[in-house]
Specification:
Strand content: 15-25%
Helix content: 40-55%
Order of helices and strands: EHEHEEHEHEH
Radius of gyration: 14 Å
Length: about 160
């Protein structure tokens, strides 16, 4: 078993792309957070449901059990930014995850603007669960700025590896 686990939620594929790159580089296990009821992927409903659920702190039901985290030293957690917050499925993850003593790394992807508030909220949830955030990275429109994003990703992967 790997000593690192990459946990992520991805609606449109940006976070999934980065999560897979990180897991591959580090030889890490990977866990995709999926909800029982899927969020809309397009249009106004995507923003209404996703934003409302994130702002309200809603915890959607997850399809799969969270893996046993005690086996891992490092946990890498990725999310899209919804209304300046982590996607609502992360609320469900943080409610159930025991990150005691874990070295954690966070990353977020937004369509525009800064993900700093989202990353701060994730850091707070990780602290509350007993983990410590050692590094974070933010990507803006990552697949539209692929060269720039991949450079940032390489630097982030090095921080995790060390």
């Amino acid at each position: 078993m790997a000593k690192t686990l990459v946990v992520f939620y991805s609606l449109e594929g940006n976070i999934a792309f980065f999560a897979k790159q990180i897991a591959e580089k580090l030889g890490a296990d990977i866990f995709r957070i999926e909800t029982v009821k899927e969020y809309p992927k397009k249009g106004l409903l995507k923003f209404l449901h996703g934003g409302k659920d994130s702002v309200s702190g809603f915890k959607p039901e997850l399809k799969s059990q969270i893996p046993e985290l005690s086996e891992y030293e490092k946990i890498v957690i990725g999310t899209p930014v919804w209304a300046s917050k982590p996607a609502a499925p992360l609320n469900s993850f943080f409610e159930k995850a025991d990150l005691s003593g874990k070295k954690c790394f966070t990353f977020a992807s937004s369509a525009g603007g800064n993900a700093s508030k989202c990353l701060e909220l994730m850091s707070g949830a990780i602290d509350k669960s007993g983990g410590t955030v050692l590094a974070s990275e933010s990507f803006t429109n990552p697949l539209n700025k692929l060269d720039e994003s991949l450079l940032k990703l390489e630097s982030f992967k090095e921080k995790i590896a060390n």
